[in-house]
Design goal:
Largest sheet: 6 strands, antiparallel
Number of strands: 6
Distance between the termini: 52 Å
Number of helices: 1
Order of helices and strands: EEEEHEE
Shape: elongated
Strand order of the largest sheet: 1-2-5-6-3-4
Helix content: under 10%
Strand content: 25-35%
Structural class: mainly beta
Amino acid sequence: SGSPPKIPPNATLIFEVELLSFKNEKDISKDRDGGILKKVLEEGKEWQTPNYEAKCQVHVTGKLENGTVIEDKDLEVIIGDEMVVPGLEKAIESMKQGERASFKIAPKYAYGAAGNSALGVPPNSTLLY
């Protein structure tokens, strides 16, 4: 029915759109609360991602926001076994074989208010992988 009197019924509308900015990050947290942000650096193979109890071989480099490296190692992670912080497990679960990605993990999906003194992670730290 249009929008009289300015737009008559059955009118063809033409819009000009300018993209001002965008973020190349995807929120993969369960609640979509911005707690686990993923940025794909290199696409993986195929379409399949690890499922529950999948045994994954990964190399991780974890940092604090100030750039301090807290870990840089090869890991074997079994999805669902809680071998790593929840945010990192969710990150690995989202990846395809051969994919390279970076992740920003909020404290609630990392070490939270307790931090991790063994790794030098202060309380309430955001982690970058």
